Every structure is written in C-alpha cells, then in structure tokens.
Amino acid sequence: MLRAFAKSVLAGALIGAAPFLIVSMMFGLFGLIRIERLSDIPLSLFLAIMPLLVAVPIVAGGAVLIGLPLTAWLTRHARESALAYAGVGIIAGAALAAMIVFVIDVYDGYWLAGMGAASGGVTGWTWWASARQPNAR
User: Fold this and answer.
1) CB 7 within 8 Å of CB 56
2) Exposure letters 21-48 (e unless 16+ CB within 10 A, then b)
C-alpha cells in the first residue's frame, strides 16, 4: 500500500512540476557546462530538480488530507471507481492550487489551478490503478 501511495504521489508531482522541470533542467544543465568549482555540481543538480522538490510535499499533503479519507469513505460505501478517484483528484488538485495561490498572494497565478487539476487527476487515477483490490469495479 505504501508503494502504491508513493507511486501515485510521484506521478502527480511529475505532472504538476513538468513545465517548470523542463526549464529548471535546462538551467541546471547549463550550470553543469560552466563549472568553475567542484561545489557547483550539487548546486546545478539541485536547481535542476527544484520544482519536483516543491511539488512532492504539496501533492503528498493533498493525498494524505483528501485522498486517504476519500479512499476510506469510498471503500466503506462500495463506491470505488477510476472516475471517482480521478474526478475528485481533479477538483481537489485545482482547489488546492487555487488556495495556495490565494494564500501566498500571487498576482494572476490562478492558471496554476489547471496544473493542480492535472496533477490531482493523475494522482487519483494512479492511486486507483495501483492500490485497488482485483474485485473492485
């Protein structure tokens, strides 16, 4: 179960961070080209994966606060389905991203809700695909 949870969180974080990850990877690789000291290598690699390091705790927090209680509720009421997990993931991901943008007061940052929706949908669907019992619908 823990492996399925980690898999779904990493898949969702990769989708949510993908556009930023492309740019940061380019900057990180450019930093590796211009190395002057040995200590520049870890900093360049850190820059390359920074969006993923930001996305993983956000997605994991959403999965723990929303996804796991949802799983308990759906299991108890025999309502588990791929649509239920992906649909709630899309809505919760968009809402969580919009809430974070609102709280940290990012001007015109509500487009990030689309990325949150994609991340939540992938997280929910991956959780469904990797953690379900074989007799579930």
Assistant:
1) no
2) beebbeebeebeeeeeeeeeeeebeebb
Instruction: List per-block mean pLDDT (blocks of 10 residues) for the chain, which spans 137 residues.
Output: 92 94 89 76 87 95 95 92 95 94 88 94 95 62
Secondary-structure percent of the chain, ordered helix, strand, coil, rounded to 5: 80, 0, 20
Eight-state DSSP code of residue 13: H
The per-type count for the chain, helices as H runs and strands as E runs, is 5, 0
Alpha-carbon 96 to chain mean position: 11
- Answer positive or negative: Cα dihedral of 103, 109, 114, 119: negative
Q: What is the pLDDT of residue 136?
A: 53
110, two tokens? 């509500």
Position 69, amino acid: P
